[in-house]
Structure formats: C-alpha cells, structure tokens
Design brief:
mainly alpha; about 90 residues; about 0% strand; rod-shaped
C-alpha cells in the first residue's frame, strides 16, 4: 500500500468521523429537546393535580358543611319528636 492510498483512507475516515460527529450532535440536540418537553409536561401535570386537589378540597369542605347542617336538622327533628312522644305518654 503506498502513501497515496494511505492518505486516501485517512481522508475517507476523516469524512466518516465528521459525519458521525454531526449525527451524534443531532441526536444530543434531539435528546435535549425531549428532556425539555418532558420537564414541561411534568410541570403541567403537577399544576393540574394541584388544581384538582384544590377543587376536591373545596368540594369536600362544602359537603362536610352540608352534612353538619343535615345532622343538626335531624337532631332538631329528633328532639321535637321526643317532646311530642313525651307529651302523648
């Protein structure tokens, strides 16, 4: 193998190496974009869960208030019923 053939092989591998560097760079950039998108999605999901929890807390609070109101009403009805039964007895 002569010097000219060796130089041609070196040049060929240099071109291949540069192409590989370019491909690797594109893959790295794509990877960074995917990581950014995942991070963004994760933050959006966290916010949605936070909002859902807040709404559920509010709903449970309202339901709790309604239950207490109903319990007080039932208690008042029982008291009145007991008084009526006591008067009859």
């Amino acid at each position: 193998m002569n010097n000219e053939a060796m130089e041609e092989i070196k040049r060929h591998f240099g071109v291949i190496a540069e192409s590989l560097r370019s491909d690797i760079q594109q893959i790295a950039e794509g990877h960074d974009m995917i990581r950014h998108e995942l991070r963004t999605q994760r933050e959006e999901v966290k916010e949605e869960f936070k909002d859902a929890k807040s709404l559920m807390r509010l709903s449970f609070s309202q339901l709790d208030e309604r239950i207490h109101t109903l319990e007080a009403g039932v208690s008042a009805v029982k008291t009145r019923l007991d008084r009526l039964e006591f008067r009859r007895g």
